[in-house]
Protein: ElaB/YqjD/DUF883 family membrane-anchored ribosome-binding protein
Amino acid sequence: MKKLFVGAMALSMVLAVTSCRETTKEDAKEAVETAKDNAKETAKETKKAVKEVADEAGKEAEKATDAAEKAIEEGTEKAKEAAKDATDAVKEAAEKTGDAIEKGAEDVKKNVKDLTK
Structure:
């Protein structure tokens, strides 16, 4: 963009200077050719800059994707660990409940035995 602007300014200056003097068709033609060349060069450089920006954006998108994948993997691992911990806690609670039921049944048997004596 900068070169296009500079090219346009250069063309304006050339036209302004040449209009103050006696100009020939050849001088005007040369100025137009110079402006065309500047515009072509600016277009090439703009295309190159856009490609560089697109490449950089692609790299950043890839980094973001990698970070997201890593976060998903870590989250999945933590979820697995939490599920295992919850399963262990349920098993432990079930065992304690079973023990309490057995103890309660033994107490009931003892009490029934004592009552039937």
